[in-house]
Amino acid sequence: EEQEQEEEEETPRLAEGSSPVEQVKRARPLQAAGNLLQGLPSATLCPSTAPADDAAQHQGRHRVYAHEAGNWPTLIYFPVPTSEEFEEAVAELQSVLQSANLSGLHRIAHPHVSVSRSFPARLHHLDPVQRKLKREMSAVSKFSILLRDVRILVNETKERAFLSVVCHGEGDALDLVAGRVDAILSDFDYPTFYPDRIFHMSLLSWTLRDPASALPPEAVSQALEKQLPMDRLRQTLQASYAQDNIAQRFSAGQLHMKAGNKEFVAELRTR
């Protein structure tokens, strides 16, 4: 997911109920709220080429896939336009979470709406993948993405939680784009997006001290939402919409693919 794959490496793995983690017959109860909500100190991200996976060096994150020479951590997404007012609105949401004694919060530096998981692309695949993306997106009309309600989502390793805003594309536009991206990635044997995906924009993240053992990610998300001041977060978000600090609708006209320090853009068709 710093455009060295800082937040972009994390948010694509968020999807309620869609993790490959299997349901278990007997899951132990969640640990105390203090354990679930405890964050780790902020730190600088390791370079994407580093083979070491030291969570203390990158805000408590671990790799979802092992580092291999020649692999580029890659994500496909729509960027979200931001402004000074947008950052002020995020700061207000952060203040609400901090009032709940939530520590170790990190802002997502480049908010986005993912249409793929983070996946390890081979260098020789980058050009053919981006060419196919450009060809496919040239047949898709530009559309608007609408921001909705605030949610707490957890990544599939259950190590990080995110304050996210669920969003929808006009009609089934986001599903259409994600489906075309899936088809391209399947051609190269890369993982496709989550089948029960929740399109969202993440704004803040923190590390969970206890990954809650065998509990599936959606159960952890639900528990966190019971522990956190969701009503205040919703009120703060709605006030930001009303003041136009966070635009509730923005145009999706460019699909980005970021692979390590390389970035490709696929233009959608103008109506």
What string gives the helices and strands in order? HHEHEEEHEEHEHHEEE
- List how many beta strands DSSP finds: 10
Q: Which structural category fits the helices and strands?
A: alpha+beta
Outline: globular
* Straight-line N-to-C gap: 32 Å
Q: Report strand %.
A: 15-25%
**Alpha plus pi helix count:** 7
| Relative helix content | 25-40%
Gyration radius (Cα, Å) is: 18 Å
Largest sheet entry: 5 strands, antiparallel
Point out poorly predicted stretches. Answer: 1-35, 38-62
The averaged pLDDT comes out at: 80
3D structure, described in words:
Helix 3 (about 85-100) runs antiparallel to helix 7 and helix 4 runs antiparallel to helix 5 (about 175-185). The two termini are about 30 Å apart. The strands form 2 sheets. Strands 1, 3, 4, 9 and 10 form a 5-stranded antiparallel beta sheet that branches. Strands 2-7-6-5-8 form a 5-stranded antiparallel beta sheet. The longest helix has 16 residues, at about 85-100. The chain is an alpha+beta fold. About 30% of the residues lie in helices and about 25% in strands. Residues about 1-35 and about 40-60 have low confidence and may be disordered.
In short:
The protein is an alpha+beta fold. Helix content is 28%, strand content 24%. The protein has helices at residues 7-10, 33-37, 84-99, 126-137, 173-187, 217-227, 230-242; strands at residues 71-79, 106-107, 112-114, 119-122, 143-154, 160-169, 200-207, 249-252, 254-259, 262-267.
Give the topology:
Layout: H1 7-10, H2 33-37, E1 71-79, H3 84-99, E2 106-107, E3 112-114, E4 119-122, H4 126-137, E5 143-154, E6 160-169, H5 173-187, E7 200-207, H6 217-227, H7 230-242, E8 249-252, E9 254-259, E10 262-267
Antiparallel strand pairs: 1-3, 1-4, 1-9, 2-7, 5-6, 5-8, 6-7, 9-10
Helix pairs in contact: 3-7, 4-5
